[in-house]
Write a structure and sequence with these properties.
Number of helices: 18
Largest sheet: 10 strands, mixed
Radius of gyration: 24 Å
Helix content: 40-55%
Structural class: alpha/beta
Length: about 500
């Protein structure tokens, strides 16, 4: 009986520790900080979030860069992205109160405020009655930090919103925009505000309200470059496409600002007199993976890495005061390095043959095919030029055999092209239609599926998955972020280090 009682008590204690895991982890965090010989609180904090970026996304980008450096068909290995060389690497689970395959609103809430909630909810509890204060808000109010929010998608989209907004629905774009302005944060940069005059287009323009509140709204490259230290600014990228977000890196014009440029300008605008917190989202990694466009996702993952390099350069000038964190909110698409059709082989250099994103291809080419009823063979000339995929009759002596289409692949492309020329999609697609095209343009997504597969890359979903995400840390008290933990602990560890309540 005594033994059974001991076992029962141990079981109850273990169960209780699971229920209070976040609190226990926070206590452990405080002990780690106290035990750290330096015991320093970072003055400058960079938090980079690759939306939809888990291990497969950054590893495929790394493998791609490595493949470009191969010589004489000898595998030379991968080439690490900037953050893959960080001194500390951890891992975080991503589930929310709804699912093991969570959304960006709930996962960003976990990172920003340390709480689980339902998918689609921003910084509110499951009952949608209690609001949560974010790490950015606390740093602004309690420690007078400057705060910068940067994203490659819309500034009132779920992930950036999770650092300043509190809404029962991530779709309340106008209300989120109002909270953006009310936050009084110092620097915003990214894609245009969605529904800036409300759902019915009958409300006061958010940009006008922002200017009345003291913000400089810069919507050209020249205006962005003219911003100086101390300016309170909202920078809207001038090279806008795909729902008013910043262009995918693969489509970005050479003279347009990249994500790294917005980071560099943010550091300049916020200055170093005060401490600052900067959240930077590579938001379109997620969008590209939803569409199963590996080349475009790789391009935006590398763009995020380049942005991290700007923070690393800053940290080299402030080595005792800077903490850099890089993580993801969830994985998107079920990306895999490996495909049944190539077995143990990968051909990552084939990714380089893709010159355009699925979104720009839809806009600049596919619309025209439909309107002019362009023959399949004519459309395939563009596919060969823009993606490298080649019909057998069009191959030349220089054509890479791994990019020549098989009869099976050609049949899939013809079926998809016919579906595209039909135009209107079904409101309720059949199972076959959804599995083949996922609600995207049939021809475009089939083209990207094929270039993915011929590179040795596969996707299992058009949605989010339940993979854990990496957490890379460099700088002041980075050791705290080692190990395996829940994504809410990213907030708890930051709050402990930054001494906010």
């Amino acid at each position: 009986m005594k033994r059974r009682l001991v076992v029962l008590l141990l079981g109850m204690t273990m169960f209780a520790s699971l229920l209070t895991g976040c609190g226990k982890e926070s206590q452990l965090a405080r002990k780690v900080v106290a035990a750290d010989g330096e015991g320093k609180t970072p003055k400058y904090v960079f938090l980079f979030i690759g939306d939809g970026m888990s291990y497969p996304q950054f590893q495929s980008a790394s493998d791609y860069l490595g493949a470009l450096e191969e010589n004489d068909d000898i595998l030379s290995g991968n080439k690490n992205l900037s953050f893959m060389d960080f001194e500390v690497a951890g891992s975080a689970t991503t589930y929310d109160s709804t699912s093991f395959c969570p959304d960006s609103a709930s996962t960003a809430t976990s990172i920003a405020s340390g709480h689980k909630t339902h998918s689609g909810v921003i910084n509110m509890d499951e009952s949608k009655s209690e609001s949560y204060e974010t790490i950015a808000e606390k740093l602004k109010e309690q420690k007078d930090y400057n705060v910068g929010i940067i994203t490659s998608v819309n500034l009132n989209h779920a992930t950036p919103a999770a650092f300043y907004a509190h809404q029962a629905s991530r779709g309340s774009y106008y209300e989120i925009g109002q909270e953006l302005i009310d936050s009084d944060f110092d620097y915003f940069a990214g894609g245009g505000l969605l529904l800036s005059t409300g759902k019915e287009e009958d409300q006061k323009d958010l940009y006008a309200i922002a200017e009345e509140s003291g913000y400089t709204v810069a919507d050209t490259k020249a205006e962005a470059e003219a911003l100086a230290e101390g300016d309170k600014a909202i920078v809207i990228g001038e090279d806008l496409a795909d729902a008013d977000s910043i262009s995918y890196e693969i489509d970005r014009a050479e003279d347009s600002l990249a994500l790294k440029d917005y980071v560099k300008k943010g550091v300049e605008v916020m200055g170093t007199d005060k401490g600052f917190f900067m959240m930077v989202e590579g938001g379109k990694i997620d969008w590209a993976c939803h569409a199963n466009d590996a080349a475009t996702a790789i391009g935006d993952t590398i763009a995020l890495s380049d942005a991290v390099s700007e923070a690393v350069a800053f940290a080299q000038e402030h080595p005792e005061e800077t903490l850099i964190l890089v993580t993801g909110d969830h994985e998107t698409g079920g990306l895999t390095i490996g495909y049944a059709g190539t077995q143990y082989d990968t051909f990552f250099d084939n990714v380089e043959k893709q010159k355009i994103s699925y979104a720009k291809y839809d806009e600049d080419y596919v619309k025209g095919y439909r309107e002019a009823a362009v023959p399949f063979e004519e459309a395939m000339k563009d596919v060969q030029e823009l993606f490298g995929l080649t019909l057998p009759e069009n191959k030349t002596a220089e054509t890479d055999e791994t990019l020549v289409l098989t009869d099976y692949e050609i049949e899939k492309l013809r079926a998809a092209y016919s579906r595209t020329l039909e135009g209107e999609k079904e409101e309720e697609p059949s199972q076959e239609e959804y599995l083949n095209y996922g609600g995207y343009e049939a021809f475009s997504v089939t083209v990207t599926h094929l270039i993915n597969n011929k590179s040795g890359i596969g996707f299992t979903s058009y949605s989010h998955t339940g993979l854990p995400v990496a957490v890379f840390a460099q700088g002041t008290s980075a050791n705290l972020f080692a190990g395996t933990y829940d994504n809410t602990e990213i907030y708890n560890k930051m709050a402990t280090l930054l001494e906010v309540e």
